[in-house]
UniProtKB/TrEMBL annotation:
GO terms for cellular component: catalytic step 2 spliceosome; U2 snRNP; U2-type prespliceosome. The keyword Metal-binding applies. Residues 1-25 are annotated as: Disordered. It comes from Friedmanniomyces simplex. This is Matrin-type domain-containing protein. GO terms for molecular function: nucleic acid binding; zinc ion binding. One of its GO terms (biological process) is spliceosomal complex assembly. Residues 54-84 form the Matrin-type domain. Gene3D superfamilies: 2.60.40.2690. It is found in: Nucleus.
Amino acid sequence: MDYQNRAGSKFGGGGVASQSATNADRRERLRKLALETIDLDKDPYFFKNHVGSFECRLCLTVHQNDGSYLAHTQGRKHQTNLARRAAKDAQLGRRNQEEGYTGANAIQIRKNVVKIGRPGYKITKTRDPITRHQGLLFQLQYPEIAPNVVPRVRFMSAYEQKVEDPPDKAYQYLLIAAEPYETCAFKLQAREVDRREERYWTWFDGDSKEFWVQITFKTEREERYSGVPGLGGSGVRR
């Protein structure tokens, strides 16, 4: 940054930088520092949405360019959230180990359990006629499910799975597990899921041995402004 040729200052005297100039210089230094340490292709929290903006899925922020995102990763908010996420994962790992859970899915695995194959399933596309929310309805049949076992659901990012290499960050995976059946994984678009109770729910019918999972994706407006306070909206088009 040129400090000495600023209007009103003597040559060689430097001059006082304005607040905006200081912030711009700080962001540029943070961006250069991040470029040396971060590979965006391997960053699990980096996501480019359908309008060309960049999102941080850890902090739920939206950035207009990759430089802004890189500067954000060096900031206090992102670093604090990274530390909280690491502490939470460590705590969850210890609890799962104490309770006898293993694996990335945190599903209880008993020794000498013989898998009997995959359950039958049906997938139906859904769309709310009023809000235009798109979603999927999963129906899985578990006629030989173990007693007192309820299927469990987990979302997995492309970077957590080990089947497809290299991982494609444009997709995510929905995992459903129930003993003694094999775990089913469904490949979905990497769109944000609306976690409100009326949009996302699961239900297991103990009589028919059917398990239902309803997921609803957020609208384009909600995805675009999810990190902007007051602009998320309900997704209703008027």
